[in-house]
Structures are given as structure tokens and as C-alpha cells.
Q: What sequence folds into this?
């Protein structure tokens, strides 16, 4: 067997790419989406995979950002240019906290310290200190803004908590406490959002048997931040009730969150029913379980989104195209 080009042909999962580059999966996805630093391919199961060239580039970008260069400034640099600035900055000897000092006077919002908020929240969660957990979220909203808090702290935080629970590293009571507190916090953000005269309405919910609502709540807050009037219906709603709310408010779109269970025949049929009730209303669908529903989502012509950023851009596109 010829092994000369085996390294360049290798395919790496997100988990391996994260470990090799020193970047969190969330950071990798954010850099792909916002700055197009790499263009990962997908395998037959629609999962991202990364090549050796992707790993090299992501590592160079991570080292350069550790040295104090905002990712938005260097995203278009070639690997040769990145090698040059990394060599000049001697990144190997530069600790992360020193690089943060180098960012003073620059636009530090480009590379916020989201990991610090996540670690602080998890530390407070371990002690079941709900006041400190809430304080972390309030401070994050103040320091990095509502959208950044949603995208870079709350979403990866819930993913981390779910993984910790599955590994048995936290009790179910910890998971329930975190979910309750984040649900309450998101609800307060949504209720504090003012109505917009003349703006389109959007209905946000989850289909029948989809009981997890934090993704839907986060989507509702994101939609409100885009200037939409949000009708949030909570989780687990039959198709006829969703359609009734859409018609009552003359809503121009529906946002659905699909978290658990995956590939549920009840949810699948509810999605088909919803399209029959709303033949021309745009349906935006996302959530951790979205990939298991890809066949039916494509069948009903849903707008499939990977994250909250795509929820926002999808809503922007609907308005710019005159649909809403």
C-alpha cells in the first residue's frame, strides 16, 4: 500500500480537529461561518470532516489570535503570511492571558472570552449556586452583548452540560437547575423586548413531543433582536395549533426547534401536517436533532439552519426578499 499521501488524504472529525488545533468546536464553527477560514466537506452521514490542510490552517489562526491578532483581521491571510506573523510574535512563549493584554485598545469584541463565562457558570453549577450562575449570564450580556451571549455562551454551555450529564459527571438535579435558570433568563430577555410597529410577526415553538424548549426560546430572542414581533408558544404544540397561531397573527414565518427525540415519527408527521396547513409560510427549522429530520424537512421545503446566526440571516433574507 502506498502511504506517501495518506496524511493529506486523512479525514478528521470535529472532535479530533478541536483537540489538534486547540480550538473549541464552537470556535471552529464560528470561524467557518463568520469568516470562511476553511470550507470543510461533509461525509455520507452529513457530518463535517477536516483535512490535514484544514488542521494546519486552523492551528496557525489560533496561534495568531493567541498573539493578539483579531480573527477578523487575519481571516484572509495566506498560510505563508500567518507563518510569518506567528514566527515574529514567538507565540510558543506567549501565554493566553498575556495575549489578552495585547488586545487592549483594539476591538476585543471580535474575540470575546466566552470560555471564561462558561467555566464560571459550570463552577457555580457544581456548587448549585443559582445566584452566581445568574450573575454570570447578566454580566455576559452586559460585557459582550445579547447575541454574543446567546451564540457563544448559552448554546455551547447547554451542549457542555448535556455532555457532562451523559458522562455521569453531574447529577440530573444539576442539569435541571441549569435548564430552569437559563430558561428563566431567556424568558426575561424575551419579555423585555419591545414590540415593533409595522414589523412582521413570527411564531416560535417546537412540534408535538419535542419537549425541550431552550433552543426555541433562544431562537425567539434572536428573532426579536432582528426586529420581528415574536409570538412564542412554548414547546410541544400540535401542527393545527401552530397553524392557528400563524393565521391569527398573520405571521410571516415559523421557527421550529428540534432537540429530542431524534427521528420521531410523530414529529415527522406533524411537520408534514404543518406544511399542509401552511402551504406558503416559510418554516425555519434548527436544533440538535435537525439532521435526523433532514428528509422530511427537505420534503416540506423548510429553511434548515445550523445555529442562531443562520436563524438571524434567514429572517433578514425573508425581509430583504419581500416575503415578510
A:
Amino acid at each position: 500500500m502506498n502511504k506517501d499521501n495518506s496524511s493529506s488524504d486523512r479525514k478528521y472529525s470535529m472532535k479530533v480537529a478541536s483537540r489538534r488545533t486547540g480550538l473549541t468546536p464552537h470556535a471552529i464553527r464560528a470561524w467557518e461561518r463568520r469568516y470562511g477560514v476553511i470550507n470543510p466537506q461533509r461525509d455520507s452521514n452529513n457530518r463535517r470532516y477536516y483535512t490535514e490542510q484544514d488542521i494546519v490552517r486552523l492551528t496557525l489562526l489560533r496561534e495568531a489570535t493567541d498573539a493578539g491578532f483579531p480573527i477578523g483581521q487575519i481571516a484572509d491571510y495566506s498560510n505563508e503570511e500567518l507563518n510569518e506573523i506567528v514566527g515574529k510574535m514567538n507565540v510558543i512563549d506567549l501565554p493566553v492571558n498575556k495575549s489578552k493584554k495585547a488586545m487592549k485598545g483594539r476591538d476585543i469584541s471580535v474575540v470575546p472570552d466566552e470560555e471564561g463565562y462558561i467555566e464560571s457558570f459550570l463552577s457555580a453549577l457544581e456548587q448549585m449556586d443559582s445566584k452566581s450562575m445568574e450573575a454570570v449570564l447578566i454580566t455576559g450580556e452586559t460585557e459582550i452583548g445579547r447575541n454574543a451571549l446567546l451564540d457563544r455562551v448559552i448554546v455551547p454551555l447547554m451542549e457542555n452540560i448535556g455532555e457532562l450529564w451523559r458522562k455521569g459527571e453531574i447529577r440530573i438535579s444539576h442539569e435541571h437547575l441549569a435548564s430552569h435558570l437559563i430558561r428563566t433568563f431567556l424568558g426575561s430577555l424575551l419579555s423585555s423586548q419591545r414590540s415593533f410597529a409595522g414589523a412582521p410577526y413570527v411564531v416560535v415553538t417546537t412540534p408535538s413531543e419535542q419537549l425541550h424548549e431552550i433552543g426555541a426560546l433562544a431562537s425567539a430572542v434572536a428573532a426579536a433582536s432582528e426586529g420581528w414581533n415574536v409570538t412564542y408558544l412554548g414547546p410541544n404544540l400540535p401542527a393545527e395549533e401552530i397553524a392557528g397561531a400563524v393565521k391569527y397573527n398573520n405571521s410571516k414565518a415559523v421557527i421550529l426547534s428540534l432537540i429530542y427525540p431524534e427521528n420521531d415519527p410523530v414529529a415527522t408527521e406533524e411537520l408534514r401536517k404543518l406544511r399542509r396547513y401552511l402551504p406558503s409560510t416559510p418554516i425555519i427549522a434548527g436544533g440538535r436533532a435537525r439532521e435526523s429530520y433532514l428528509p422530511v424537512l427537505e420534503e416540506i421545503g423548510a429553511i434548515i439552519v445550523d445555529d442562531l446566526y443562520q436563524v438571524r440571516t434567514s429572517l433578514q433574507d425573508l425581509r430583504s426578499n419581500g416575503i415578510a
Q: What stands out?
A: The chain has a mean pLDDT of 85. Residues 51 and 130 are 42 Å apart (CA to CA). The first strand starts at residue 41 and ends at 42.
